[in-house]
Amino acid sequence: MTDPIVYLNGQFLPLGEAKVSVLDRGFLFGDGVYEVIPVYGGKPFRLAEHLQRLDNSLAGIRMTSPLTAEQWSDLFDRLIRGDHDQSIYLQITRGAAPKRDHAFPKETPPTVFAMCNPIAPIPASGVRAITVQDIRWDWCHIKAVTLLANVLLRQQAVEQGCAEAILVRDGQAIEGAASNLFVVVDGILVTPPKGNRILPGITRDLVVELAQANAVPCQERDIAAEELSRAAEVWVTSSTREILPIVELDGRTVGNGSPGPVWARMNRLYQEFKETLRRGG
Ligand code: PDD
After folding, report:
1. Atom 2 of ligand 1 has which residue's CA nearest to it?
2. pLDDT tens by residue, 60-110
3. pTM of this prediction?
4. Which of 114, 235, 236, 261 has the most CB atoms lying inside 10 A of its own CB?
């Protein structure tokens, strides 16, 4: 396979030739933010929303976007190849300063990196998950590259034969290690409200929007960890996993062990929405 073309600091070049300094603050401190944007039919999905979240993440770490929305869009168009489902990964760090110092450097340009990868097929039969204690920091609304806690928690899940870890903080089920959380309790679709404990997922927002537009009862409220065991359905959502049903949680079957009817309905609405984009709508 040929090396894909990626973007690094103003240049388009083969992945193998894209190199950053060992003094880059992303490498030394995890001092940066990122975005993952799905691409359907060759077009970035919900681009304006992803770019708005990028601006919010940058503001959260006291940086500003190095490119305009139009420049981002042009850049992404140059990375997208073909019309299969793909995702753009974009990372911006506070750059490579001449010496290692925790405080912000002066006049150091940011490092900007972007690449486009195929999205792996999503297992429609559902996956297994575990609950774990949320050991992350207090600013989970910022899409920071500092992902060590998420990495450790996801690995814990993988080592138990599971696809995701559901994070529990102060007795509340918060979100997944790299996804947002939905449950169906008493016939109502529930997802935790936005705030600094969760990443404001673009997929999450679309699911809430589609539920509201199609009269699917939906609430944004805290989910007590105990509710997970009596939920008829549990799903996680993300740009690369869409709406993914959890059919076994902590070794217990969720519902009847297969993706539930509310998932089937919302997934159909989501796939139809994607199709309108593919057709250029
Ligand atoms: N992660 N919560 C966390 C902690 C996440 O890392 C993600 C996505 C989400 C879902 O957000 P969205 O629907 O906008 O993808 C929620 C990406 C996919 C990742 O880190 O690869």
Report:
1. 179
2. 999 999 999 999 999 999 999 998 999 999 999 999 999 999 999 999 999
3. 0.97
4. 235
Instruction: Say yes or no: CB of residue 91 within 6 Å of ligand 1.
Output: no
Q: 153 CB less than 6 Å from ligand 1?
A: no
109-132: buried (b, 16+ CB within 10 Å) or exposed (e) per residue? Answer: ebbbbbbbeebeeeeeebbbbbbb
Which CATH entry fits the domain spanning 127-278: 3.20.10.10, 3.40.190.10, 2.40.30.10, 3.40.50.1100?
A: 3.20.10.10
- Catalytic center residues: 143
Gap between the Cα atoms of 37 and 12, Å rounded: 19
- Ligand 1 centroid–CA 171 distance in Å is 22
Residue 87 CB–ligand 1 contact under 6 Å: no
